[in-house]
Amino acid sequence: MSSQPPHPALLIPGPIEFDDAVLQSMSHYSESHVGPAFVSTFGDTLSMLRKLFQTSHASSQPFVISGSGTLGWDLVAANLAEPGDDVLVLHTGYFADSFADCFETYGSRPTQLKAPIGSRPQLPEIEKALKEKKYKLLTVTHVDTSTGVLSELKGLSELVRRVSPETLLIVDGVCSVGSEEIEFDKWQLDGVITASQKGIGCPAGLSISMFSGRAIETFKNRKTPPGSYFASMKNWLPIMQNYEAKKPSYFATPSPQLIHALNTSLTQILSKPLSERFAIHREASQKVKKAVTDLGLRQLASDSADQANGMTAIYLPENVKVPELLPNLFKKGVVFAGGLHKDIAAKYIRFGHMGVSVTDSNRDDIDRAIKALETGLSEVGYQKA
Amino acid sequence: MSSQPPHPALLIPGPIEFDDAVLQSMSHYSESHVGPAFVSTFGDTLSMLRKLFQTSHASSQPFVISGSGTLGWDLVAANLAEPGDDVLVLHTGYFADSFADCFETYGSRPTQLKAPIGSRPQLPEIEKALKEKKYKLLTVTHVDTSTGVLSELKGLSELVRRVSPETLLIVDGVCSVGSEEIEFDKWQLDGVITASQKGIGCPAGLSISMFSGRAIETFKNRKTPPGSYFASMKNWLPIMQNYEAKKPSYFATPSPQLIHALNTSLTQILSKPLSERFAIHREASQKVKKAVTDLGLRQLASDSADQANGMTAIYLPENVKVPELLPNLFKKGVVFAGGLHKDIAAKYIRFGHMGVSVTDSNRDDIDRAIKALETGLSEVGYQKA
């Protein structure tokens, strides 16, 4: 029996449904942010992130900072790029535009490589771009929350290492960490930024990231000071290193309650092999995608190789309106999200299938959601052709 | 009976002890950040902040952003000052140095007006400084968490309006909002930045601020774009206005659980007259300060007019060491903080007396802490002369 009151299952691409124990950790009694008990909890949490990202290099550096996923962009743009640096931004939807804005704010020069909606830039185009100009960083949105497009990282990394080995490879993993396979060391990633409220399964309020030793060296070799104060690695690096060494340290007050919840969530995730977790997400995703196809509907991500395992973006039939369907589904106890990609926002919905909704066998969120979608569509007048 | 497990009373100058209902709100089941239920909760929370800050001008603008108190500095420095602008920073301890660093990060030029430890810059010096140079902003730490020094805002505001009326008056109220009287409109303040975990009584993780219509106009009239992305008012202003108008809006995902907790805390605070709340804090503070004097100890804030009502910074006797006394007090069930001002950190302790520890008559935190301090000091060898 869940300790949560009955409520509609939140099946948007984040925030997701949370486990009882994680939510209970949010109510932890107040502790000093520099007291030994909390310092130990925070230190363990940082160490667990190394396992989640599959990195065993001592030089890799985790960061957990009060904020949102967006703060990760500042962490990258204000610390790893310097004014005037060129940055190649692979575009798969809404989030690349914003990441590019963030780079511009701090004075670097983003070049966007855009793909048609529902697709992603292909390796030959990326190779061409990398050969045309020297890029300090290349960024890729692992799963674009606005389109459900999954980018392939292993081949991308091999390409970058071959064609432009000094370029740092930065992954926006806000909608992928915890639900998609990420091998930080093996794929030679330089940075993955994410947030707490999606695949990691902890309430929103934390910016979570991992950077390679090479990225940290790039930061340390800056010629100009970091462009942000709150997102400055100069301010945060010693704090993260101290907490992980179980030494109290202060730059800005962390949120003990959120860190406890993250600790609980990571402990749960790491209690089983990560490969199993990713397999369960793939299976659930296949079930959802099959149901979508069976309903005669199309996904934004047209190529099956480009489809995320933690969410599905679904084009609605011509005669079905988002503001009609979503309240109908809400009444059936499931919450989906509307469209986010500005060009086609009114034409599609997003179904998130991450975390306990797919990993907890006591939950039937996904089956109920598929059923609600079938019934709901027919109730608002859709008949499969 | 509290629903919290037995634990030592956290009496540091933030985070503070939290009310049961506030902590329970932290465990709220997951909700969409753009769904009508949460949008309404967030909107109400923003409106309640207007009452807490005592502002009824429609042009005043509240902001609640995932982050920490420190983020408030970026909000000021990256939006209200432009590169090259002069800023006068009144210095009462640790926090002015950091706020000045933050201004420098974004290219403005801070001038610090420093007072001896335990004191604050006096009005005649401030007047002289304001006449020497044109300052875009003047910042003051209302309560300096490192020294327990309280700055007086009403007279300061009158001075600024008389001598340099265009200068924006910005208050760092991280350790004062909720425990010290603040009359945003009457005192003609232009900005007050704070955090959730002190006088407001909600767990850490939120940057909370209020800006005047004049400050927002100053932002809108910038000649250069904001210096930060995550802390950009350009990105956040429409979001805050939409939430308060109960319209869904998205820039970065807020933390529904923290916003619920803040909503609960503000509802509790505003259920009684604010004047009563401030009077209770003053009384508790007087009790603590009398006990300190009775023990033959001195405060960092030497002048009683400069002493905060939510915390007390206490010089230890010569022969008593912080690392000896604090664990002794911990065993007695109370947690105090060590020193923070780098010049004298080893010589003093800090006792926070804010929020439910003073307002909840079912709690005896303050009396227990005073008693623990008396006994603890004698156990580590101190005898009043």
From TrEMBL, chains A, B:
Its cofactor is pyridoxal 5'-phosphate. Its EC number is 2.6.1.44. The keyword Transferase applies. Keywords: Aminotransferase, Pyridoxal phosphate, Transferase. Residues 33-341 form the Aminotransferase class V domain. Pfam families: Aminotran_5. It comes from the Eukaryota. The modification N6-(pyridoxal phosphate)lysine is found at K198. Substrate binds at R350. Belongs to the class-V pyridoxal-phosphate-dependent aminotransferase family. This is alanine--glyoxylate transaminase. The lineage of its organism: Eukaryota, Fungi, Dikarya, Ascomycota, Pezizomycotina.
